[in-house]
Amino acid sequence: MKESSVLPPRIEPAYSFPLNCSTNLAKGKFPPVCNRRGKMHVCNPCYLVSEDHASPVLLWDAYVFNSKGTPIKDVVIPDSAQKSLLLQKHCDYIASYGSKKDDYEYCITEYLRMSGMYWGLTVMDLMGQLNRMDKDQVLQFIQQCQHECGGISASIGHDPHLLYTLSAIQILTLYDAVDMVNVEKVVEYVRSLQQDDGSFYGDKWGEVDTRFSFCAVACLSLLGRLDAIDVDTTVEFVVTCMNFDGGFGCRPGSESHAGQIYCCVGTLAITGNLHHINADLLGWWLCERQLPSGGLNGRPEKMPDVCYSWWVLASLKIIGKIHWIDKEKLEKFILACQDEETGGVSDRPGNIVDPFHTLFGVCGLSLLGNETIKPVNPVYCMPEDVIQRAGIRLELL
Amino acid sequence: MATDSRGSRLLSDLNSAFRRDPDIDEYDFLPVLEPKHNRSPLLLQEHKLGLEMWSVRILYDHAYNTLMAWRQKEAHAKFLDPFDLISLSRAVVLVNADCLTAWNIRKELVESSDLNLLDDLKFGALVLSRHPKSPETFCHRKWLLRRYVECCLSSSNGSTTSTGSLYNDFVNMDAIDFDLEAEANNFLLMENNLHGMNQQTDFHEVMRREMNVCRKAGENYPCNYNAWSHRSWVIQNCYNCTIQVLIGELHVTEAWVRQHISDHSGFHYRQYLLTNIHKQADILKEQFSLNYKNLIHKEMQIVVDLLKSFSGHEAIWYHRRYVFQALCKVCDSEAVAVEIISLPDGYDQDLPIKTSQKKTKLENERQVLLLKEVDSVSRNHMSKKDTFQKGLAQKYLDWVQKSCRS
Ligand SMILES: [Zn+2]
């Protein structure tokens, strides 16, 4: 692809836009990039919006230096990096993930089990092998996680929360089995968490965050029950979280963050309110997230991370600016994050894989047009055919 | 599930460590992968707690399974009294700070007065020393702080002071040289001499500690989104965005951002402060004879200084975007204000003409500001050899020309 075709429209012919400081960098010395795979390190795949996962000290391993020696936070992709997609390996990795139940990692991640299952099942469906998972066991588990109040928890005996309620409804939609839970009570639970200003609590304890607005709206729309909440104030609240740079944060006045942007853009897309977005300004901020390695970060001066290939790319897709980033380089970055022995995808080349980054890596490749993966819906992060079957039609920009 | 008897022994070791030293302020897991001697794997020294790595999993399994069995009301579950619940949930979140249910159990214990709210704030600070960005830990703190503020406000309601008095106590302070920490200490001394004012004293002390917790978390983990967004939450929800506090915070974070030039969250926090100061520009002028425009100019000076000294930092350039667009807005509002003042009576009929003239004038002012900015950045950054810094400067110029035209 010729470079000019991926550039956004220029305002002044003399100026070159966001991308590509790459040609200028990285000609100097590199510190050796150490392979961190195999070191003892429990990856903590965070829930809906991910922060980065490696220790701040380790980040220095991967600093790239420009010709003057200023560190640029990025990674170097070795020539030996994997260049083709290892779909079958990833399927095997996910299929065997839940079988190691004595694993400390499995035990310590129980607090987000429902989301973990959603990641695994969705990526299996996108790769065409959902039938390898134990459907009955999954559905029974979800039933056991619904509480008296209607909300659904991450695991049996844990407390209900909007994050896990959405994950559960996503899984049930995947299996076309929402009737396995008491839908009326789910709707009532979500409705009960909306506040007068349109915002949503994550659970009864009262934390407010635009992530929860997305959870509420996505969940109800999958159930065909958006009418249960006040959509106008929901939108108003999300719009008050918009910043001067076109991005969104967790609350009004909060810093723009790629994960929060995805949630806010998604909320506006589902409710048919994308006109509130300044697509040029937001698109600009989003495509400035691409680093010389091709990977995307979630905020300025952060390391690239595969999960941001999803938050950023999906947001760009929704606002119709996906052509503003260098797709080939991003594809190369994601492919380099695969583990060719164990299967699975990690946050950065050489790190330990987990189901969270495996899903978002595969979703990213799907949005980039890889035809061996099912098309993914950029708003719901679910297979497009599932969203069609649920009767949902969204207008994107 | 086979219960490992070592689990309950480790838990009582942990409990006795906290009994011996209620002021533990940091903890970590020591890289000892197998039991090597017959001693306890818990080490306590100068308020620092160390747990040998091998014991962490055993402790966690025991605490987590016992607590969750109780929560699920399983038939074989043990009866647990509040003390057990406090110690089990403590062990769980020390290892896994994002276990929402364990934090919720602690909220219930606070509600039933079995757990002291301020003690739990202190414990949360300890958890953040090892998990500086844990979202559930910050979430729990917000809940505790909301409850605390409500409690302070409702009791001050009953006294002669009004509801807003806690916020307004800051009014007497010297705004310009306001250093939140030092001033809060002076304030404490002053307050302690007054009879019956302990509640206010506590309030400010609690908030001072909260700011410290945020600062430490921001230092332990760069670009700590949760820590900085928590800090702005405190400013809004516990201080009601009182202008004295905003100015004080602007003052204390200047040195911080100068030392953390890659930290966009730190810069953004200043943006948050400036935006909220702007909303109260009138009060700023009346009470402190400070001009918002001067604050923005001063911020631009900080940016210019930093860009001169440190090359290749996107965060500083992003901050400049904010500062410059804020400057443009000030420029617009001043131009409008001048128009309104100079518009004599009886000119209403000519309004369409006036409006278009006004618009042209606005555009001109903007244009001048923009030209100056482009010129200054070009002169200082576009002629250097440093290609990366040049690239960032170029992106900045593109952005302001697109976004700040008018
Ligand atoms: Zn990630």
UniProtKB/TrEMBL annotation, chain A:
Catalytic activity entry: geranylgeranyl diphosphate + L-cysteinyl-[protein] = S-geranylgeranyl-L-cysteinyl-[protein] + diphosphate
Repeat as UniProt keyword: yes
Free-text cofactor note: Binds 1 zinc ion per subunit.
Keyword annotations: Metal-binding, Phosphoprotein, Prenyltransferase, Repeat, Transferase, Zinc
Coiled-coil residue windows: none
Domain Prenyltransferase alpha-alpha toroid: 85-382
Cofactor requirement: Zn(2+)
Record has rRNA-binding as a keyword: no
Annotated GO CC locations: Rab-protein geranylgeranyltransferase complex
Annotated EC: 2.5.1.60
GO molecular function, one term: metal ion binding
Function text: Catalyzes the transfer of a geranylgeranyl moiety from geranylgeranyl diphosphate to both cysteines of Rab proteins with the C-terminal sequence -XXCC, -XCXC and -CCXX, such as RAB1A, RAB3A, RAB5A and RAB7A. Catalyzes the transfer of a geranylgeranyl moiety from geranylgeranyl diphosphate to both cysteines of proteins with the C-terminal sequence -XXCC, -XCXC and -CCXX.
Family according to the record: Belongs to the protein prenyltransferase subunit beta family.
Quaternary structure and interacting proteins, as annotated: Heterotrimer composed of RABGGTA, RABGGTB and CHM; within this trimer, RABGGTA and RABGGTB form the catalytic component B, while CHM (component A) mediates peptide substrate binding. The Rab GGTase dimer (RGGT) interacts with CHM (component A) prior to Rab protein binding; the association is stabilized by geranylgeranyl pyrophosphate (GGpp). The CHM:RGGT:Rab complex is destabilized by GGpp. Interaction of RABGGTB with prenylated PTP4A2 precludes its association with RABGGTA and inhibits enzyme activity. Interacts with CHODL.
Protein name: Geranylgeranyl transferase type-2 subunit beta
Protein source organism: Mizuhopecten yessoensis
Automatic annotation (TrEMBL), chain B:
Keywords assigned by UniProt, alphabetized: Prenyltransferase, Repeat, Transferase
The UniProt record lists the keyword Magnesium: no
Domain of life: Eukaryota
Matching InterPro entries: Prenyl_trans_a (IPR002088)
Keyword 4Fe-4S among record annotations: no
GO cellular component, one term: cytoplasm
GO MF terms, alphabetically ordered: protein prenyltransferase activity
Family that this chain belongs to: Belongs to the protein prenyltransferase subunit alpha family.
Protein name: Protein prenyltransferase alpha subunit repeat-containing protein 1
